[in-house]
């Protein structure tokens, strides 16, 4: 049986093509002059450059963390290029008609049509290619509602007060090794601002694509939801199939002011490397949100890609009655390694958090959940519920759970449930006896296992996530 | 002839369980297989459906002129072999509805038919659900998730009704059922007797055969059919149990 499962899980990566696009790429290496050049390319104000340089100086004094349950060869930060942009972007296109058709084709191949007439109904898209944002759709319609959705490089110039006030307010520039690196060299990403009381009229989404060889992608996303506003945001990520490891170190900051709600969903499908662990993206990401009174932040992630995933989307529940949620599906196969989870920091009274984590390990992969639930001294009546389920496919994969609970308030309640199960021969046999082939059977069982998380995704993407899981599982069943 | 089993010998974990079994089943026939525990009754069902770990050592099985032993589990299922499990397993999070829709459409595809739309399928599924006396919300619930023993058995019969197989193997579908549930199961099976569909009814007790009238009864002991007859053979088992088999074995040894 496990041989069959292995075959069914043999890897196929549909997004693994390289686009032939002329690019302006910096030579490899990192020092202050590189940061000055990035800042100059982006025509940034002085304060932004200073901020970057301070981050860089902190980073130089920091050590790469090694506490995660991950084994990999450390990155040589001097052998990567920190900036790459399609040549045709030099004179920024004013409309889709001016965008390099090869670029549009790239996104089309990925199933993300950027042509106005074929756009995903009701979803505004910001497409980030290597280091720059290529195009943002539906901007006019969003502007009518007062919503700002644009590349962060543009926001720095157009809305400096907002950016200055909030950038680094949730993830300080020296928060950790990867966040500091990102703060120094980030090139683009999305900026979202929802005014007071506004319900964003459509889903917002960003698609990240790494194309160039030996290029790191360092995007930075900042979402600000003013009092009583509401927004749902989705990001998707892919990269070509390459033998070299590529670095992705992003920072995402969410600010949910009083009574605001942010729903942030991720479908991450970076190239995971081949069966033997050659190539693949190193995904070191810092995502964090802050909730003021009665605010709510909900993280949903479906992680199927990357050779290494190091990622803990977190909520700081500062305001009373605020709510944090984390729903996660992490699938690893082949030689993939994931160490992912969340942090729920309860500071306010009656704060609530829910963590539902589903880890699926197949092949020779390793999948770890790491979560911290912290109840501060003032968090009277705070509650957390954590459910952490692992599913093993085959007999060579591993699942680990590292829950940390720190409570400084006797009235706070923390509940933790954990299960580990296997796709059993009995389940597979039942499915096959009803006429389903092994692949279909496994993907059905795995989809069932993930149902609680998938139902949290926006409708359009729940179907995508199911399909992605199915493709990812192809050939991994035995 | 629908199914021809010749000199079948099969083992589990290197222990031979089926030791030279012969059986022929024509379309529309109901064959009951009775016998003491450990005789190989369930093993026969698993061997016919192709379960991994059940090794055929020798002999042949022909199903509708195809070499059944050459086919994978799912191929056999799509060719029309259905096994109603003695202990149906749970598949959490996968609704009965989507599970059966995929199964039914896999069988339809095999026959070169168009898949059923969600609405078409829902209609037939509701009817089947009612037929086995399960509330309609069972279609939405996870496959066997939190079902009682009797509900699981009825759910198996519902799947059988939906899949419209050619040969149904019922593996102790009566075990653990009260008399009302037993009748529901039997009614479900009887409703599918159309003169073409065949059944292998595996049971330890004669009780089920009061409700599903078999054409033939076979007594399986130590991996072989030791006696075949009509429905009266089942009555004989009821009165005298399986103790007489030991004498039979001595006689044949």
Automatic annotation (TrEMBL), chain A:
Superkingdom assignment: Bacteria
- The chain positions of domain SUF system FeS cluster assembly SufBD N-terminal read 144-200
One matching Pfam family is SUFBD_core
Q: Name one GO biological process term.
A: iron-sulfur cluster assembly
Tell me the ranges covered by the SUF system FeS cluster assembly SufBD core domain, including all copies: 208-449
Q: Known InterPro entries for this protein? A: Fe-S_cluster_assembly_SufBD, SUF_FeS_clus_asmbl_SufB, SUF_FeS_clus_asmbl_SufBD_core, SUF_FeS_clus_asmbl_SufBD_sf, SufBD_N
Q: Which residues form a coiled coil?
A: none
Q: Which family does it belong to?
A: Belongs to the iron-sulfur cluster assembly SufBD family.
The name under which this protein is listed is Fe-S cluster assembly protein SufB
Q: Which organism is it from?
A: Aliidiomarina shirensis
């Amino acid at each position: 049986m496990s041989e069959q499962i292995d075959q069914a899980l043999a890897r196929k990566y549909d997004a693994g093509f390289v686009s032939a696009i002329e690019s302006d790429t910096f030579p490899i290496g990192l020092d202050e002059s590189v940061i000055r050049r990035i800042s100059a390319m982006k025509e940034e104000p002085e304060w932004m450059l200073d901020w970057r340089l301070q981050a860089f100086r902190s980073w130089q004094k920091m050590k790469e963390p090694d506490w995660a349950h991950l084994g990999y060869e450390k990155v040589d930060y001097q052998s990567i290029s920190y900036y790459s942009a399609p040549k045709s972007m030099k004179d920024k296109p004013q409309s889709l008609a001016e965008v390099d058709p090869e670029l549009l084709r790239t996104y089309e191949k990925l199933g993300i049509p950027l042509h106005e007439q074929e756009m995903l109904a009701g979803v505004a898209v910001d497409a980030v290619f290597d280091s720059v944002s290529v195009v943002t759709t539906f901007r006019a319609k969003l502007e009518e509602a007062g919503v700002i959705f644009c590349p962060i490089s543009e926001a720095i110039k157009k809305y400096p007060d907002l950016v200055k006030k909030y950038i680094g307010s949730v993830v300080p520039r020296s928060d950790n090794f990867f966040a500091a690196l990102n703060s120094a060299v980030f090139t683009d990403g999305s900026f979202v601002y929802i005014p007071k009381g506004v319900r964003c009229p459509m889903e917002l989404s960003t698609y990240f694509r790494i194309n160039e060889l030996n290029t790191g992608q360092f995007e930075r996303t900042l979402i600000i939801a003013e009092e009583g506003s509401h927004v749902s945001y989705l990001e998707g990520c892919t990269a070509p199939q390459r033998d070299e490891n590529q670095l992705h170190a992003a920072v995402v900051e969410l600010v949910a002011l009083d009574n605001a709600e942010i729903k942030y969903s991720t479908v991450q499908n970076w190239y995971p490397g081949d069966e033997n662990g050659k190539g693949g993206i190193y995904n070191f990401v810092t995502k964090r949100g802050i909730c003021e009174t009665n605010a709510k932040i909900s993280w949903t992630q479906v992680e199927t890609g990357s050779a290494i995933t190091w990622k803990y989307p977190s909520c700081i529940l500062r305001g009373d009655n605020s709510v944090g949620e984390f729903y996660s599906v992490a699938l690893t196969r082949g030689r993939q390694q994931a160490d992912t989870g969340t942090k729920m920091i309860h500071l306010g009274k009656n704060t609530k958090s829910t963590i539902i984590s589903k880890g699926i390990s197949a092949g020779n992969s390793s999948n770890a959940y790491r979560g911290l639930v912290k109840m501060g001294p003032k968090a009277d009546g705070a509650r957390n519920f954590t459910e952490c389920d692992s599913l093993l496919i085959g007999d060579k994969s591993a699942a680990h759970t590292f829950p940390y609970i720190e409570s400084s308030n006797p009235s706070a309640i923390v509940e933790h449930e954990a299960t580990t199960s296997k796709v059993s021969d009995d389940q597979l046999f039942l499915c096959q006896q009803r006429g389903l082939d092994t692949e279909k059977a496994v993907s059905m069982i795995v989809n069932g296992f993930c149902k609680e998380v998938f139902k949290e995704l926006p409708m359009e993407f729940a179907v995508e996530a199911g399909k992605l899981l199915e493709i990812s599982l192809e050939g991994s069943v035995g | 002839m629908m199914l021809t089993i010749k000199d079948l010998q099969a083992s589990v974990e290197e222990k031979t369980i089926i030791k030279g079994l012969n059986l022929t089943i024509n379309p529309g026939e109901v064959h009951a297989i009775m016998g003491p525990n450990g005789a190989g009754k369930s093993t026969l069902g698993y061997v016919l459906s192709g379960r991994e770990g059940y090794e055929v050592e020798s002999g042949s099985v022909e199903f509708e002129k195809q070499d059944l032993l050459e086919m994978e589990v799912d191929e056999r299922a799509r060719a029309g072999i259905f096994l109603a499990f003695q202990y149906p397993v749970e598949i959490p999070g996968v609704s009965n509805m989507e599970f059966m829709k995929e199964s039914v459409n896999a069988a339809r595809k095999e026959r070169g038919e168009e898949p059923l739309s969600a609405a078409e399928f829902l209609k037939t599924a509701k009817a089947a659900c009612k037929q086995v006396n399960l509330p309609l919300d069972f279609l939405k619930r996870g496959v066997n998730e939190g079902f009682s023993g009797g509900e699981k058995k009825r759910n198996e019969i519902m799947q059988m009704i939906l899949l419209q197989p050619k040969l149904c193997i019922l593996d102790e579908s009566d075990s653990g059922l009260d008399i009302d549930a037993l009748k529901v199961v039997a009614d479900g099976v009887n409703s599918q007797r159309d003169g073409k569909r065949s059944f292998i009814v595996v049971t330890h007790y004669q009780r089920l055969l009061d409700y599903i009238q078999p054409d033939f009864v076979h007594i399986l002991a130590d991996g072989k059919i030791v006696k075949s007859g009509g429905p009266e053979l089942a009555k004989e088992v009821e009165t005298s149990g399986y103790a007489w088999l030991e004498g039979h074995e001595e006689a044949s040894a």
